[in-house]
């Protein structure tokens, strides 16, 4: 039997009958005794065959009428229950279908088809555990491809990818050329974090059926997950060649382009997908996000609003509010405004946590004012008429790629490269100006139109406490946080789809509770492609800390591991092994040794192991942003900032090795601190390059293949350990440069969000 009924005809019989005549087909099938669950009576079997045929051709009512008639004459006719149940299921009457299949099982407990179809029906009803039992019984009675394939689908739906993969492999042993099963193998492999194996499976699926658009799209998506843009583009094109109106294909390719920073290409795909299917909310949302990113704020607000009219609780509410805020501040000097203070803290918390828009925390939120006719959108152009801005964009190309990680899972994002390059130059100019002049409290004076006046462009410190995220706008000396604000503002403007905020300026309750950043190495059954490479190192840190100081359970109670289990602990290689040793969820806290208070140790990050059903674990690093920890880490950052000032202001000039060590120390404490809701690693790395450039040195070196600089920092107890690890590839890449001497001042020429967006939009 197939998916929809039990009628099977041989090739010979099909060639000898008029296939347009159902009665003839049914009669021939009965005569040849090829009716599934037939009774051997030609008349009855002919009616069974005709009923199957009606159901298989979509004539459900006619088919059900025939089966009802048969059951009136014989209430124990299994074929009639199977046929009627199938018709019910295909019409969405799942409870009635399940009842019919149960009746068939009661009559014949060894009827594999009945168990199989009830299993499928129960899965559709979300009774997954019962579905697994039924499909398992079917496979015990008469194992075939469909039993294992269907059970694999249920396991996949339950996120039990290992068991699902095992079933799909068994199904392929019985039917090696089933393209749908190969596609599911790919889905399971990808969900386990085994992207290369997924690619092989999708390739098998497309080789069997070159018209299988979903498999082409999945293949492209796997390459995207791996960080391979060229192959992702190639195979998305294949999917869209198969079906030029494949909305989901346009959405997925649009996301890939967006992840590469190709906002215009992404917009074209989302717009095309939306044209094909105006009800597709994914394309609708991302079209709005692209318009928002490019500064086409009117169209973005319109798109967000129309989506909210369809779904008032849609998460795009948050993006629309940010879009309206950006519109309102588009022409304000960024030196004098700061969205972290100007946006409602409860709104920011709700956006970070993806709360529903009717969440109690934002019940008193006052929405942003609408679009003003007096504020035009950003002019969308591939170039700029400003000579200075064009020069800055060209200079940014020199530094932007430095942020790119040469490791699996990271696409090269051209827009973020631009943001990085401009931010490095901007921060380097500000730091150099700060090193070279006595700092003053309060706003720095500027000439007409923002011109720095008689001071040289590269030595002018653009600073106004009104635009600072520190001290609530009160007068204060230029601090490390004022300087980092530059990178934060660039990050906020460059990526409107990310909630990037200072954690201490979220809702006070969220800050007091300890707003936690979380990065998974393992989640469920998936080894996360980006971060799993640091699993072994993190596991060794965990084992050492457990031996030295024990661990804390989920109730924050510390416990020591019995001595009898220490050998088993040392042998542990996986999450499962660790769970066998510890027998409960736990976390350890890495030490982060202070240089501001020698001999003191602060809480670094928490490495946590929790069980996650089905048959999986969450192995994550979690950084709690609590007020006491914030005070400690802020003091550490301030101390390193003073050391950097002292070194940079030496009359004889800074010692390059000493300054480099301090710049890396600044990065070490910053990423251990984790002060932002998102973007800490990127802004911290930008800060390091900017510090070096501020004393006339560029570091023309991206991290070596497979290296993510923040992980060694987070997993090292002291800045000395961290510096010792990265200096071997970083120090040789330093070289003197005078680029800042002839570079327009970013703070002057990109003073507003409009100019920042224009610079980011230049191709």
Shape verdict: globular
Count, helices: 35
Strand content: 5-15%
Number of strands: 9
Termini, distance in Å?
A: 58 Å
The radius of gyration over CA amounts to: 32 Å
In terms of topology, how is this protein built?
Layout lengths: L10 H5 L6 H10 L10 H15 L3 H14 L4 H13 L3 H14 L4 H13 L3 H14 L3 H13 L3 H14 L4 H13 L3 H14 L4 H14 L2 H14 L4 H13 L3 H14 L4 H13 L3 H14 L5 H13 L10 H4 L2 H8 L34 H13 L14 H23 L43 H15 L13 H6 L1 E10 L1 E2 L7 H15 L1 E3 L4 E2 L6 H6 L3 H8 L3 E8 L7 E12 L3 E10 L1 H22 L7 H18 L6 H15 L2 E3 L10 H5 L4 H12 L3 E3 L9 H4 L3 H9 L2
Antiparallel strand pairs: 1-2, 1-7, 3-4, 3-5, 5-6, 6-7, 8-9
Helix pairs in contact: 2-3, 3-4, 3-5, 4-5, 5-6, 5-7, 6-7, 7-8, 7-9, 8-9, 9-10, 9-11, 10-11, 11-12, 11-13, 12-13, 13-14, 13-15, 14-15, 15-16, 15-17, 16-17, 17-18, 18-19, 22-23, 23-24, 23-31, 24-31, 29-30, 30-31, 30-33
Structure characteristics:
763 residues; disordered N terminus; 7% strand; seven-stranded antiparallel β-sheet; two-stranded antiparallel ribbon; alpha+beta
Task: Please give a structural write-up.
With 763 residues, the protein is α+β, with helices and mostly antiparallel strands. The protein contains 35 helices and nine strands. The strands form two sheets. It has a seven-stranded antiparallel sheet with strand order 2-1-7-6-5-3-4. α2 crosses α3, α23 crosses α31 and α24 crosses α31. The protein is globular, with a radius of gyration of 32 Å. The protein starts with 10 loop residues before the first helix and ends with a helix. The N terminus is likely disordered.
């Amino acid at each position: 039997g197939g998916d929809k009924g039990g009628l099977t005809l041989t090739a010979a019989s099909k060639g000898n009958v008029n296939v347009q005549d159902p009665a003839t087909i049914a009669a021939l099938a009965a005569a040849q005794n090829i009716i599934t669950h037939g009774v051997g009576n030609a008349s009855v079997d002919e009616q069974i065959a005709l009923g199957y045929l009606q159901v298989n051709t979509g004539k459900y009512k006619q088919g059900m009428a025939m089966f009802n008639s048969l059951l009136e004459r014989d209430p124990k006719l299994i074929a009639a229950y199977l046929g009627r149940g199938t018709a019910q299921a295909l019409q969405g009457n799942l409870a009635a279908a399940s009842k019919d299949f149960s009746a068939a099982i009661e009559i014949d407990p060894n009827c594999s088809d009945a168990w199989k179809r009830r299993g499928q029906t129960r899965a559709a009803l979300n009774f997954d555990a019962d579905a697994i039992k039924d499909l398992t019984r079917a496979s015990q009675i008469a194992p075939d491809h469909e039993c294992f394939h269907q059970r694999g689908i249920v396991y996949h739906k339950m996120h039990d990818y290992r068991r699902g993969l095992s079933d799909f492999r068994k199904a392929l042993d019985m039917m090696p050329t089933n393209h749908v099963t190969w596609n599911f193998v790919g889905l399971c492999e990808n969900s386990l974090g085994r992207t290369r194996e997924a690619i092989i499976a999708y390739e098998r699926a497309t080789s069997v059926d070159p018209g299988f658009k979903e498999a082409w799209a999945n293949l492209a998506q796997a390459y995207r997950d791996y960080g391979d843009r060229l192959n992702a583009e190639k195979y998305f094109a294949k999917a869209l060649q198969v079906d030029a109106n494949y909305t989901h294909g346009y959405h997925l390719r649009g996301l890939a382009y967006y992840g590469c920073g190709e906002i215009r290409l992404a917009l074209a795909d989302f717009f095309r997908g939306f044209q094909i299917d105006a009800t597709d909310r994914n394309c609708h949302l991302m079209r709005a996000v692209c318009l928002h990113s490019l500064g086409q704020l009117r169209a973005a607000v319109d798109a967000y609003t129309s989506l909210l009219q369809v779904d008032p609780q849609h998460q795009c509410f948050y993006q629309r509010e940010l879009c309206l805020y950006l519109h309102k501040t588009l022409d304000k000097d960024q030196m004098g405004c700061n969205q972290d203070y100007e946006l409602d803290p409860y709104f920011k918390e709700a956006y970070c946590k993806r709360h529903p828009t009717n969440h109690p925390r934002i019940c008193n939120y006052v929405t942003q004012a609408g679009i003003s006719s007096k504020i035009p959108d950003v002019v969308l152009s591939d170039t700029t008429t400003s000579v200075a801005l064009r020069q800055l964009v060209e200079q940014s190309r020199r530094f932007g790629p430095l942020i790119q990680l040469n490791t699996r899972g990271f696409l090269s994002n051209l827009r973020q490269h631009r943001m990085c390059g401009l931010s490095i130059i901007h921060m380097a100019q500000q730091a150099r100006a700060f090193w070279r002049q006595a700092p003053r409290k309060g706003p720095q004076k500027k000439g007409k139109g923002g011109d720095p006046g008689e001071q040289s462009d590269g030595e002018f410190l653009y600073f106004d406490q009104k635009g600072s995220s520190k001290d609530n706008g009160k007068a204060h000396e230029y601090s490390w946080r004022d300087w980092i604000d530059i990178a934060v503002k660039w990050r906020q403007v460059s990526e409107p789809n990310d909630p990037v905020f200072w954690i201490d300026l979220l809702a006070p309750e969220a800050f007091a509770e300890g707003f936690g950043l979380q990065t998974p190495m393992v989640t469920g059954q998936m080894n996360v492609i980006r971060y799993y490479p640091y699993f072994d190192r993190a596991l060794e840190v965990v084992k050492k800390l457990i031996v030295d100081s024990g661990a804390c359970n989920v109730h924050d109670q510390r416990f020591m591991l019995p001595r009898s289990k220490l050998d088993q602990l040392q042998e542990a290689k996986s999450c499962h092994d660790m769970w066998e040793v510890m027998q409960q969820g736990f976390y350890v806290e890495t030490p982060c040794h202070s240089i501001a208070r020698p001999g003191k140790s602060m809480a670094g990050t928490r490495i946590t192991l929790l069980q996650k059903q089905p048959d999986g674990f969450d192995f994550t690093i979690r950084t709690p942003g609590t007020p006491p920890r914030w005070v400690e880490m802020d003091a550490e950052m301030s101390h390193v900032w003073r050391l950097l000032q002292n070194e940079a202001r030496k009359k004889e000039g800074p010692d390059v090795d000493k300054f480099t060590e301090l710049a890396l120390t600044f990065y070490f404490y910053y990423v251990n601190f984790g002060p932002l809701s998102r973007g800490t690693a990127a802004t911290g790395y930008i800060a390091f390059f900017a510090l070096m450039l501020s004393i006339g040195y560029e570091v023309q070196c991206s991290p070596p293949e497979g290296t993510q600089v923040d992980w060694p920092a987070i997993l090292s107890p002291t800045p000395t350990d961290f510096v010792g690890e990265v200096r071997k590839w970083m120090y040789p890449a330093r070289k003197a440069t005078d680029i800042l001497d002839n570079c327009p001042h970013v703070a002057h020429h990109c003073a507003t969000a409009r100019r920042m967006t224009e610079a980011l939009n230049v191709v």
